[in-house]
Amino acid sequence: MAADEKAQAKGEQAKGKAKKVVGGAVGNESMKAEGHAEESKGDLRAAKEKAKDAIKPKSK
């Protein structure tokens, strides 16, 4: 499950970054803002997974 969440986070980050760049290039502020929001969502999901990994007990 964690790998799926991490992959989803990376996908959201990449998709958001692409939308930001395209929105900026064509002057579409709405697309640029949507991309920023999606990238932030991916960043939050990645941070959540890192926190879960940090508190997970280490196997011996």
* Helicity range: over 70%
How much beta, percentage-wise? under 5%
Unreliable spans are: none
Tally the helices: what do you get?
2
Number of strands: 0
Radius of gyration: 15 Å
The helix/strand order is: HH
Cα-to-Cα separation, first versus last residue: 21 Å
Main sheet overview: none
Mean pLDDT: 92
Tertiary shape: rod-shaped
Q: What class do helices, strands and sheet pairing give?
A: mainly alpha
Summary tags:
0% strand; 60 residues; rod-shaped
Explain what the structure shows:
It is a single chain. The protein is mostly helical and 60 residues long. The chain has helices spanning 2-26, 29-55. The longest helix is centred in the last third of the chain and has 27 residues, at 29-55. The protein is rod-shaped. The two termini are 21 Å apart.
Short description:
With 60 residues, the protein is an all-alpha fold. 87% of the residues lie in helices and 0% in strands. The longest helix has 27 residues, at 29-55.
